[in-house]
Amino acid sequence: MPASGSAWTNPLREPRDKRLPRIAGPSSLIIFGVTGDLARKKLMPAVYDLANRGLLPPSFALVGFARRDWDDEDFAKVVHDAVRDHARTGFREEVWERLAEGFRFVSGSFDDDDAFARLKDTLHRLDKERGTDGNYAFYLSIPPKAFPTVCEQLQRSGLATEEGDSWRRVVIEKPFGHDLESAKELNGIVNSVFPESSVFRIDHYLGKETVQNILALRFANQLFDPLWSSHYVDHVQITMAEDIGLGGRAGYYDGIGAARDVIQNHLLQLMALIAMEEPISFEPKQLQAEKIKVLAATRNILPHEENTARGQYGPGWQGSQKVPGLLEEEGFSKNSITETYAAIALEVDSRRWAGVPFYLRTGKRLGRRVTEIALVFRRAPHLPFDKTMTEELSQNVLVIRVQPDEGITLRFGSKVPGSSMEVRDVNMDFSYGTAFTEASPEAYERLILDVLLGEPSLFPVNEEVELSWKILDPVIEAWVSSGKPDTYESGTWGPASADDMMSRVGRAWRRP
Ligand SMILES: NC(=O)C1=CN([C@@H]2O[C@H](COP(=O)(O)OP(=O)(O)OC[C@H]3O[C@@H](n4cnc5c(N)ncnc54)[C@H](OP(=O)(O)O)[C@@H]3O)[C@@H](O)[C@H]2O)C=CC1
Ligand SMILES: O=C1O[C@H](COP(=O)(O)O)[C@@H](O)[C@H](O)[C@H]1O
């Protein structure tokens, strides 16, 4: 027992050795939209992986909510298939059996008050049967237009109200709004139901190991900081390229487009982590404060026509497979002007970064799947070599490989062995696969665990979301008024206008 007067902490939830993972306390995770793509591919497998790693308590329940006419057993079968197909860790019967005892399914529509009454009843029964203690995390993995309805239903049914020592939390998927105005409106609704400390806005990129490692790279080392500014950095390129198309996702993506889908959130968060100053600690507020300063100091490089590019994929080849263009994909209208490629140029108005462009680009059906952040350094002011000896020397680059092949590469010049002083680019490499024996958890594993622990560091706060829309809104407005996006062939690296945007300023996109 604790010494009198001292606050008692559960050694499992607050291990003394900070390297030990924390274990969630008694709780129910309620997934709205549990029959959807995200729940099947990411959320249910992540819950199993957490259980398999021993990070969920015995008194844990997973409750699914959607319109299908399923019972608990049907639901368990669906979770089983999702785990079999997508879980990261191996299947263990004993883990599965224990976890599955806490599976419940509630069938109903978001506008159905009775369904929320049934959900409440189910959760109360779980509190008694499994000891989930009235702690509920509501995960809204649903079409964004349904976020307000579900929040309001949770309020009306009394499920949002904390009782005694219990907690209630809401997890909201992205995109949070579709522009600044709608984000503000949504935030007003969410905050009228849940206090800000109970709101977890998901940006799954922050759950990725390689993204958290940006903080370690920058703030655990002495080596990089002196180089991390306009004195040495020429520009930064942040790339999120995907080879997949949008077949089956028209309902969500048409009218949203690449910029809203990932630049507003993932890519601006990556930029904020690269550009921010050292936080005084990793307390959530301190970390968020530094990111907020970056986003508040960020502006578009103008004019938009010269410093942005957008495109829509046409037919082409992805490896050896012939693939259709966006307009032939099921569900997209033949006149859709939704962009599947977007590139923008930003500047951060601060002493550290003045004059350094940050180029952000993303696209579907590009050459290959890769997300990376490249700091491209200025050229050496003088090269004491014969010109012919440095023809294969380019700018030094530090590449943070977010995925796949997670790691970091430093490109620099080195003497080619032999009698002449020829210098050529070489790479120095750190690779997670060879440096560590531990496998990286999936982003959603980390984030779901953090929600259950009430740990908000890796979740953007409302101010970050609003500032990000403030940066993006004028770009999207300019695009809308200029009509159709350019077309690019599937399997290539985007529209010609993206290359023009860089060549106009004497630069080029990397071919990762
Ligand atoms: N899929 C992905 O890779 C990613 C998705 N996201 C975000 O996650 C969220 C979910 O996306 P995703 O899984 O792709 O979407 P889906 O369209 O695949 O799934 C939507 C889910 O919502 C349920 N639903 C829709 N309307 C209602 C309603 N009126 N009443 C009850 N249930 C309803 C559907 O259930 P049913 O029809 O069975 O009743 C289904 O389970 C979105 O906010 C998306 O932006 C974020 C990152 C990646
Ligand atoms: O948020 C999203 O991310 C996925 C890609 O995620 P990743 O972790 O595989 O890089 C993207 O396909 C989707 O369009 C977007 O909504």
TrEMBL record:
UniProt binding sites for substrate: 204, 208, 242, 261, 364
Domain Glucose-6-phosphate dehydrogenase NAD-binding as annotated: residue spans: 30-213
Pathway(s) per entry: Carbohydrate degradation; pentose phosphate pathway; D-ribulose 5-phosphate from D-glucose 6-phosphate (oxidative stage): step 1/3
Gene3D superfamilies (alphabetical): Dihydrodipicolinate Reductase, domain 2, NAD(P)-binding Rossmann-like Domain
Enzyme's top EC category: oxidoreductase
The protein's Enzyme Commission number: 1.1.1.49
Binding site for NADP(+): 67, 174
Catalytic reactions on record: D-glucose 6-phosphate + NADP(+) = 6-phospho-D-glucono-1,5-lactone + NADPH + H(+)
Keyword hit for NADP: yes
GO molecular function, one term: glucose-6-phosphate dehydrogenase activity
Residue span(s) of domain Glucose-6-phosphate dehydrogenase C-terminal: 215-510
Pfam families: G6PD_C, G6PD_N
Swiss-Prot/TrEMBL keywords: Carbohydrate metabolism, Glucose metabolism, NADP, Oxidoreductase
Location of the region described as Disordered in the Swiss-Prot/TrEMBL record: 1-20
Active site, renumbered: 266 (proton acceptor)
NADP recorded as keyword: yes
Listed InterPro entries: G6P_DH, G6P_DH_AS, G6P_DH_C, G6P_DH_NAD-bd, NAD(P)-bd_dom_sf
UniProt similarity note: Belongs to the glucose-6-phosphate dehydrogenase family.
NCBIfam families: zwf
Protein function: Catalyzes the oxidation of glucose 6-phosphate to 6-phosphogluconolactone.
Record-given protein name: Glucose-6-phosphate 1-dehydrogenase
Organism (species): Gordonia hankookensis
